[in-house]
Amino acid sequence: MIMYKKKFISGIVLFVVSLSLFADEGMWMLHLLKQQKYPEMKALGLKLQDYDIYNPNGSSLKDAVVQFGNGCTGEVVSSQGLVLTNHHCGYGSIQNHSTLEHNYLEDGFWALTPAQELPNPGLTVTFIDKIDDVTDYVKSCLKRDAAKDSLGVFYLSPSYLNAIAREKAGEAFLKENYGTVVEIKPFYDGNQYFMFTKKVYADVRLVGAPPSSIGKFGADTDNWMWPRHTGDFSVFRIYADKNGNPAPYSPENIPLKPKRWLSISTKGVQQNDFAMIMGFPGTTNQYFTSWEVLEKRNIDNDVRIHMREIRQKVMLEEMLKDPAVKIQYSAKYAGSTNSYKSAIGANWAIDKRDFALTKQQQQDRLLAWAKKNGTKEYAQALNDIEMIVEQRSDLRFRDRMLYEGISRGVEFASIPTRNADLLASALQKNDQQEFEKLSTELLNDFYRFANKDYNPMVDKKVSSALISEYMRLIPREKQPEAFDEIYTRFDGDAARYVDYLFETSIFGSGQNMKKFLEGNRIPEAILNDPMIRFAESVKAEAASLKQQLAVFDRPFDKARQKYVQGILAMDGALAHFPDANLTLRLTYGKVKGYRPRDAVNYDPQTTVDGIMEKEDSTNWEFVVPEKLKELYRKKDFGRYAMPDGRMPVAFTATTHTTGGNSGSPVMNAKGELIGINFDRNWEGVGGDIQYLPDYQRSIIVDIRYVLFVIDKFAGAKNLIREMELR
Ligand code: ARG
Ligand code: ASP
After folding, report:
1. How many helices (H) and strands (E) does the chain have?
2. Is 232 noted as a catalytic residue in this protein?
3. pLDDT of residue 16
4. For 690-705, what is each residue's pLDDT tens digit?
5. SS3 string of 293-334?
């Protein structure tokens, strides 16, 4: 009796805990939402019908969500094809249009009429028209084409899958519908296949962007951090031909009349309000085994953290010494710290929540279930994965060390050597004409490499430090061939070796390059050039490691497919979400703060008060534009302030997002836009392996701040009038 009661209570506790633990987990496929998660979403407060979100036979919210470029998300917010995304997603376009006279990165940009909107060749916006389960079709094609697939790799091959997608759609259909693209992607490691029929618009124009002091406020210091005060948004417009179809850029094109656009709520959010996000998350590793968790932790992330620490420390020292270096290296430093910080966060979560154990428990559960059913194949698959991870560990370590430490960290490892090699053979053949042509190209190559943001002094210092550490951690016989010279000629002293490279190589300086091109042009000068030898030897080593590692790929992929098949067989095909793969997903949860540490409690909402607290006119990351300060002083917030008079900036939610979700619409229970997703907290990036209910938060710019900046700061009332504010 007591036993029973105890069991019963702990049963309830377990049930409640697991509900609250996992309620917000998942990046769900829209066409399965009704069966999978819709009831839970209703219970959490959703006020919509499932077909309001996804309706294969009519328009629904999903028709307002677009993939922006190849790695971000955007949302349509007017009947005239206006699109919102992040500032960091529009950054490349804004930068392309920036000059010293019109520095849109610095000052912002606002088109007051359609004629002022700026085209962006290469930028696309993609709508998902249809999602179909094509698992049976793909299986039958794989069977049909088995003879051509001797390596057994078609089942994951994008080029194969897209060829059979085109076959299914019919070339005639694709030809008649310019801009329509079909794609089949594998899900659950190749256990299911879905086909996407998309419409790709290639005339996308820049409409507006705040200055970086708003759109990138806090820059790298605040990146992956909460509390956050960044107005990370920009505005674009989709153009189409007069029938509303995709067309290449033309001045004749007109703004797209979309099927659907989001209306916007100015009512704001409260702790525990329902929130949902649709978008195109890039990569997750939900089905990692325990061994892969440790591989990621101890090899990939540890190497990245360790080598970038060395690189960034030297870089920062030089940046702080000299403002010119600071300008040169700020983008490189930012790129480096972005994934450095997320690797730290990932490892923190792996340890804090013991992901290896969580995944191990999942494996054990499968093994016990399989044993009951008398199946051995899953145990075999797990054995294979364990063995391969073990067998490839040394190669993987070397590969990561070479990538982080040398190929990426040493800038002169990327000198453009191709034209130099061609030039050497022209010299050998005594081909004067070819020589003249190639020497111009070589000089151009050189200045593309040694551009305004390249500083040889910084490269020397960073490289010496990285090469030394690489040599310390990788046994001599496993280093690239060219490293031999460091031992034989320089007693293993990387700094002296690097100095020598810069002194003697034609790539060492513009002077060296000119001296060679104008002077003693013997082929040996190139053939024996030590920096060219270094760069080529590093590339050869990278290729060799890649090749050695590739041997493991096929058996590994097969074992993973089997393992995930087992999980789906055990729990049911609808129980789990498939790993992110840049396809359209929905995640839902609540507006909520979090507790990063004992006794520390973060609110879910930030305000302009926090911008003023962070203001530092001597630090480019925290400069506040004068106009914003003036609006703040006058409390001139228009209709966008909170009931207590403060002006909102950003908020956090428990939604499950990852890279690629940047720019995604965040919607309330009625499907109205309440914010634009742009980041996560660093404590939450481990959610790529396992959702972290207590730590993981999406970081979202509050739509009221976006509207305030457009309306009050930029005075672009034309855009406000175009949108549907509620
Ligand atoms: N952390 C965000 C992401 O992963 C934003 C990156 C852009 N911002 C930056 N300061 N680097 O993409
Ligand atoms: N900042 C990321 C992006 O650009 C979003 C994230 O990683 O949460 O997609």
Report:
1. 29, 19
2. yes
3. 43
4. 999 999 999 999 999 9
5. HHHHHHHHHHHHHHHHHHHHHHHHHHHHHCHHHHHHHHHHHH
Domain 21-124+202-284+577-726 architecture: Beta Barrel (2.40)
What's the confidence (pLDDT) of residue 331?
80
- For residue 54, the model assigns a pLDDT of 97
The residue whose C-alpha atom lies closest to atom 3 belonging to ligand 1 is 679
Q: 342: which strand partners? A: none
Q: Where are the beta strands (DSSP E) in 87-222?
A: 109-110, 118-119, 125-133, 180-187, 192-201, 203-209
The Å distance, Cα 538 to ligand 2 centre, comes to 31
- Structural domain boundaries in the chain: 21-124+202-284+577-726, 290-548
| pLDDT tens digit sequence for 499-523 | 999 999 999 999 999 999 888 778 8
Atom of ligand 2 nearest to the CA of 677: 5
Low pLDDT (below 70) residues in the chain:
1-23
What pLDDT is attached to residue 23?
67
Question: In angstroms, what is the span from residue 406 Cα to ligand 1's centroid?
Answer: 23
The answer to whether the beta carbons of residues 19 and 584 sit under 8 Å apart is no
Q: Residue 524's CB: how many other CB atoms inside 10 A?
A: 11
Token pair 């020589």 is found at: 435
Distance, in Å, from the CA atom of 650 to the CA atom of 328, rounded to the nearest integer, reads 30
User: Would you state the pLDDT for residue 259?
Assistant: 96
240, amino acid identity: A
Are the CB atoms for 664 and 27 separated by under 8 Å? no
Who lines ligand 2 at CB under 6 A? 657-662, 678-680
646 secondary structure, DSSP code = P
Determine the pLDDT at residue 95: 87
Note the residue count of the chain: 726
Q: How many CA atoms lie within 13 A of 611 on its CB side?
A: 27
Joined tokens for residue 603? 């609110």
Q: Which of 339, 463, 505, 662 is catalytic?
A: 662
**How is the beta sheet containing 648-653 ordered, strand by strand?**
28-29, 585-590, 274-279, 665-667, 673-680, 698-702, 648-653, 605-607
| Separation of alpha carbons 591 and 655, rounded Å | 8
220 lines ligand 1 (CB under 6 A): yes
CA distances from 692 to 313, 353, 547 (A): 31, 8, 36
Measured from the Cα of 338, ligand 1's closest atom is 11
